[in-house]
Amino acid sequence: MRNRIAIALAGALLGVAALGGVVQATPSAGLTSTTIATGRLDEVHLAVKTGRWKVELETKGQSDVTVVENRVAPGGTFGWHSHPGPSIIVVKSGTITFYDGDDPQCAPEVVTAGKAVIDNGNHVHIGRNEGTVDVVVIVTRLLPAGAAPRVDQPDPGNCGF
Hints:
Order of helices and strands: HEEEEEEEEEEEE
Number of strands: 12
Radius of gyration: 20 Å
Structural class: mainly beta
CATH topology: Jelly Rolls
Shape: globular
Distance between the termini: 49 Å
Number of domains: 1
């Protein structure tokens, strides 16, 4: 009986020690996400030029395209995270502030209603509502087919919040 208790205690201690080394992801807070549409896209090889304006888009393999409406309450946050592909973000209302996990200065990128930004993907970042009204952002993601749209990440420690 003593051996079983000793083995159980040793196992519990090893489990606690293993978890102690795990860095916890930062959760979102005050965030409501609504998926508007999702579709599967075959490979794309596209180049369009209209006057001086030009766009090129090329993918290898199938992609998932997802459009999401995110609503962030005042003081709310997306939590530190990354995406395995690019996202086009349009601020529908309010003001959202983004921070990059690789920026040692933790410089804010403030984006107001009517503006759009592109998240290139594969980097750690956070979006925060530092204002007094809800922020609504419409996000269109282009991701590898079947990939998780969001990867929770630990706080990189470069910002003081």
